[in-house]
Amino acid sequence: MILLALLAVLAGCGNRHSPDLFVLDRFGEVPGAQLRLRVYDDGQVRCNGGERRRLPDQLVLDAREIARELNELAPRTLRPRARSILRYRLRLEEGTVRFADNSRGQAPAMSLTQAFTRRVARDVCGLRR
Questions:
Q1: pTM: predicted TM-score of the whole model, two decimal places
Q2: For residue 97, how many other CB atoms are within 10 A of its CB?
Q3: Integer Cα distance of 44 and 20 in angstroms
């Protein structure tokens, strides 16, 4: 009986998914602005709830840098200024970080987040924006 329980536990270990680095939501009024990226520590991403896709190595490094730097700032909200086009919300281990493309006081990781999001959306997810 104990042996069966142990085998069941061991069999389940291979089915576990890697934890999230972050979940990113992008919003805006322009076409194609709405996007959800679930970025996993194993270098994969889900685009808008679709199938997992592999990130190129540089984007994996960027995602880990974003998670590390923004976790240190979480929770944090930077208000959008007038004529903001895109807004971002990242749910991280330490809390949620919110900012807009034109928020004042952005940390370098916020600019990296914007570039990362655009590259993943276009190059990995196959989206226009």
A1: 0.85
A2: 26
A3: 10
Chain position carrying tokens 């971002």: 88
Structure tokens at 58: 């540089």
Going from the C-alpha of 16 to that of each of 19, 31, 49, 79, 85, the distances in angstroms are 9, 36, 18, 37, 38
Using the Cα atoms of residue 110, residue 25, residue 58 and residue 84 in order, give the sign of their dihedral: negative
CA gap 116, 93 in Å, rounded? 19
Matching residue, tokens 């576990």: 16
Tens of pLDDT along 65-117? 999 999 999 999 999 999 999 999 999 999 999 999 999 999 999 999 999 99
Q: Is 8 exposed, middle or buried (0-12, 13-18, 19+ CB in 10 A)?
A: exposed
CA separation for the pair 12, 114 (Å, rounded): 37
